[in-house]
Every structure is written in C-alpha cells, then in structure tokens.
C-alpha cells in the first residue's frame, strides 16, 4: 500500500505509458502484456495508471476492464474527450477498478478552438464545464485536461481552470501538447494559475509535457518548482512523436536534488527492470546515451574516468546505479581503458595477477580493443589464459 502523499511535499506520479506511450506506431501491446505492465507499474509505486482511451477501440476498452481487475491500490484512469458517449464508455470500462478516475478534456488553444472545433472560447468553456459535471455522475475523481495549454493564453486558461474546478474537477492537467514551451514559460504558466485561480488550493495541478524540442523533463521540473503536484510521464519517455516526459528522469531528479524537498512513492530499484520490460515488449530500443536507463548511462570508458570511479564512485557518478536496479559491472572495457579498469574486471572474474603479468595482458588487451571496440568477459578470460569454469562468475 502506497503511503498517503502529502501534496505540499510530494508529487503524484501519473503514468501514461499504456495510453499516450502506447499511441506510438508499432508499440501496441495486447491485453495480457498490458496487464503485465500495469502490475509492474503498481510495484514501481506509481500513483495513477492511465490505462487507455476506452472509446477508441474494443481492444482498449477491454484492456481497461482487465487492468482494473488486476491492480490493487493504484488509481486506474481512463481518457475521454469532452463528449458524453466517451464518458459513458470510460465509466463502464472502470467498473472493476478499486480506485478510479475519469480524465476528460478539450483543446483550449486558439489553434484547437478555431481549426479543430470551429468554435469560440465561450463555447469551449461551456463544453468543458458540462463534461466535468457529466463525468461527476459516475466518479468523484475527475481530472480535466486543457489540451494544448502550452499555447493557450494564460488569462483564458485561468478562466477555464477556475470553471472546471467549480464544476467539480479534482485535478487539472496543463499539457504542453506540442512540446513548444520553454521551461521558464511553462513554469510561469503554472505559477500564474496558482496565483490567479480561485479554488486552486483545493485541487492538484498536473504537468503533461511532450518532448518535441527536448524540453519535456525541464518543463516538468519547472512545473513542479512552481506548484504542480502531479506529473504525467511514461517509461523511457515513449509517446507521440518525440515522446512524453520520462518517468525515470523526473523521479531521479527529484531524488538527487534533496533541496527540492519533494518526495514520490516510487521504489527506484524497479526503474531499470521496468525500462527493459517496456523496451522489449514494445520493440522500442532505448537510445544508448538516454539519461538514467540508456546502456551507457553508467558506463565509464575513458581511462581517467575509470580510474576515478574505482577510487571513489562519486568522482564521476551522481546516482548509484544500484538505486535504479542495476547491479552488474558498469566499467566498459575499450581501447581507452587503463590498467586499473582491466585489473578491476579481472578481479571480478576471480583472477589475481602479478603487476608484470597484468602489464603483459594489458598490451594484448589494447591490441584487441583497438580492433574489437567492446571487450567482454570471455575476451578477458582468453587474454588471461583462463576459461569460464576457472572464473568465479
Ligand atoms: O498531449 C496531450 O495534450 C494529451 C491529452 C489528451 C492529455 O495527451
Ligand atoms: Zn500527451
């Protein structure tokens, strides 16, 4: 059971891997796989799982039903447009959820109002209020999203946020749908709402940032600093186009920067295993230099860095890889590695050598590394004249 978060010093983690993340072409999961992901997200400690957009397909509807049955304490959320039929279907799909939320909303930017809805600000506001009131007949926990809030004028945004709060929304989501905002601009938007909306202290403001300009994480952190207390994120930052804010980045920033004085319910030791799971189920490789979960995120390859790390990890590491569930060795042996790294790896393999023998093997190692790029344990054993049965690994 998750601890109850105190909203002032904690941020709710709302995972949308199974909804916004799953919209990526080629990443679709079947219901069994979605259940597996949802259960892992629950073990990870996320507070809310956005399980799908039930009106979009019978498969999505069914997945929300099955995920609701298979998860115990995490809130299950279903997405809708500000349309009664969507809300009816979402409510039906959530019937087995122990804790449930409907996430409804509408586009609020001038682009959406004019080109998507051919409407006016006043009409959109009316539709927003009506959707919240309608959803309220099914569940207490209603989240409202102002789609493209990133490009919505702050004064109009404040009007609409105030109106949906009055109608009963408990969480208001401020998406930077196109990933356009600068961190300062996004933070100022959250602050403007915190300072100008009546009733804001009774609800939670949520961030939902896309990564089109590579600023999703920075914008999310800026949102938190300015008062948002829920973040919408995905594992490995997967999502439409350049993706959503990555869960692991935000959680580890919060954990590393103690001065933020913010907590989450996340058990960070589950981060790496779930990252691998999503990558493999969705057939979506993680870029090697991806922060926190990329293959090279903790792989030190230059001799100077390896020597420094072996003397004291903190010389070059701000996160202990064990904190995110990486247990094995992270010293990459390449042509730039020094003797210290080779000796360290040999010791892990149970091989102790005299300085003279180490020097000899190091010469051979450099020749091999020049040609092979990455040296694995079998190569090391071969250089040391041993085989697997003689090593302790
Ligand atoms: O990016 C976005 O605006 C969304 C909303 C539907 C929440 O995903
Ligand atoms: Zn989105």
Structure description:
- The chain is of the alpha/beta class.
- Helix content is 41%, strand content 11%.
- It contains 14 helices and 8 strands.
- The chain has helices at residues 31-44, 58-70, 84-93, 110-116, 121-136, 154-167, 183-196, 216-225, 247-256, 271-281, 303-311, 339-348, 355-372, 377-383, and strands at residues 12-15, 48-52, 75-79, 100-107, 142-147, 171-176, 204-209, 230-233.
- Strands 1-2-3-4-5-6-7-8 form an 8-stranded parallel barrel, surrounded by 8 helices.
- Helix 5 (121-136) packs parallel to helix 6 (154-167), helix 7 runs parallel beside helix 8 (216-225) and helix 11 (303-311) packs across helix 12.
- Zinc ion is lined by residues 20, 175, 177, 208, 210.
**What's the helix count?**
14
Order of helices and strands: EHEHEHEHHEHEHEHEHHHHHH
Radius of gyration: 25 Å
Number of strands: 8
Strand order of the largest sheet: 1-2-3-4-5-6-7-8
Dominant shape: elongated
**Range of strand content:** 5-15%
Low-confidence stretches: none
Bound molecule types: 3-methyl-2-oxobutanoic acid, zinc ion
User: Which secondary-structure class do the elements indicate?
Assistant: alpha/beta
Q: Between the first and last Cα atoms, what is the distance in angstroms? A: 37 Å
Helix content: 40-55%
Q: Report the average pLDDT across residues.
A: 93
Largest sheet, in brief, is: 8 strands, parallel, barrel
